[in-house]
Every structure is written in C-alpha cells, then in structure tokens.
Write a structure and sequence with these properties.
alpha/beta, 6-stranded mixed beta sheet, two-stranded antiparallel sheet, 8 strands, globular
Length: 246
C-alpha cells in the first residue's frame, strides 16, 4: 500500500456511518480502519440513527461485552452479534412496505452480521464488513486495511492530528484527506515538512423523500439506502463533495 500519488483516508471503525463517510472513501485510494487508540463508549463506533416511525430518529446500536475506556478499539467485542442484527432489522422493519429499497438494506445488514464468528464478534471487523457491503452495493472502490493488523511501529502517544501524519509517512501516502469538520485538529506545516499534502472534504447536505414520514438529515447510510437507488446516492456524494487544500 505505497507508491506515488496515494491519497489516504484514516478513520475509526464507525457503525454504518452517514453519507459523507462514503464520500471520503470515494475520494481516497486507500482506507485505514483506525482502531489502535483507547476505545470511547457511546460513540458512532457502536451506534447510529435511522428514521423513527413516529417522529425524529431512532438509535440502532451494537451492545458490547467489554465496552469501556480501559480497552483499545480493536479489543472491543460484541455481546451477541445475532441479537444485535435482529434488533437493527426490527427497527428497520417499520419501513418494509414504505421504503422502496428496504429489502436491499435488510440484505446488507445480513451480509454484514452473518459472517465468521471471529469477524462479526469484533467491533472493528464488523464495522469494516459493513463499509465493504455498502461500497459493493454503491459500486465504490474500498481498498482497506485494519491499523491494528499492520506492523507500523507507531508511537504510543500522539496528538489527535498526528496519528494520520505518522500512518501516511509509514505507508508512503502523498495526500491525507479528512472531513472538513476536523480541520482544527491538524497543523498543515507539520504535513508539509513530511512532504504530505493535507486536504479536507466538505459535503453538501443530501435531502431525500421519505413518503409518509418527516425527513431527518444526517442519518445512517442504512436510512439513505432505504429510500434512494444507488445511482442517486453516488451522484449526491460525488456532486456534493468539495475538496479544500489546507
């Protein structure tokens, strides 16, 4: 995973994240699932949101057997993968007769959770499976590696904006791409010193029809896929994305 012109993305293993996450994947050549730092409970790594059948949004989540700040992210294990799968499917079942692509989303949830126990029992690998399943459905390239399985020799303690810098340096990346919302964490001068270009992706909001329900912005990709065909989703993430240089 090295060579000239390599644009890298480095993000924590999020649980069926929102559309902008996939815009990042679309604009990178390689993706690192970042799972070597302290685990943080009750974050987007173990939960997300879909439309609520009455009003607002509803949580979907994956309960952990050992979710605490005393473990690294790659050590997080699911309490019961099949029970978590069934709960997610149950919260999506309200839309079976209303959302035109509900059956596709149901299949992708099964595809994510119905795998080898050592994969679906690990939060990191479960979430990576989810990203891969969505990318296959949308026709996006997803060249990914899990950070904890790479022998990168990373320092033990780094500032938030420096992890990506060290990973890029070790993998020979020439550009690092991050969501624009995290811009304040990064020092462009440090990246320039290492010969690595720093870019930020900004994505326009994507509003879509949810007949019979009030639309809620910023929900999980599962919600987006229930109501939209793949071509419309890909068009939204490509046409709505803007890259900014640091």
């Amino acid at each position: 995973m090295s060579g000239s012109g390599l644009r890298l993305g480095v993000m924590q293993p999020y649980f069926f994240p929102h559309l902008a996450h996939f815009a990042l994947i679309e604009h990178t050549d390689a993706w690192i699932v970042f799972d070597v730092t302290q685990y943080t409970p009750k974050t987007w790594m173990s939960r997300n949101r879909v439309l609520h059948p009455s009003t607002g949004w509803n949580w979907i989540n994956v309960p952990l057997a050992n979710g605490s700040i005393h473990i690294r992210t790659h050590e997080a294990r699911l309490l019961d993968p099949q029970a978590a799968r069934d709960t997610v499917l149950g919260k999506l079942s309200h839309y079976r007769r209303k959302a035109p692509f509900h059956h596709t989303v149901e299949r992708l949830v099964h595809e994510t959770f119905d795998g080898p126990p050592d994969e679906v029992g690990s939060l990191t690998h479960l979430n990576r499976r989810g990203l891969a399943a969505v990318c296959r459905h949308l026709g996006l390239r997803f060249e990914s590696s899990v950070c904890s399985t790479l022998d990168l020799g990373l320092p033990e303690h780094l500032e938030a904006g420096d992890w990506a810098l060290e990973i890029c340096g070790r993998l020979g990346a020439t550009t690092y791409l991050n969501p624009v919302g995290g811009r304040a964490l990064f020092d462009p001068a440090r990246y320039r010193e290492r010969g690595i270009a720093l870019q930020f992706l900004e994505m326009a909001p994507f509003a879509y029809a949810t007949p019979g329900y009030a639309f809620e912005p910023g929900l999980s990709i599962l919600d987006v896929m229930m109501w939209n065909e793949p071509a419309a989703i890909v068009r939204a993430l490509r046409e709505g994305s803007v890259l900014h240089d640091a």
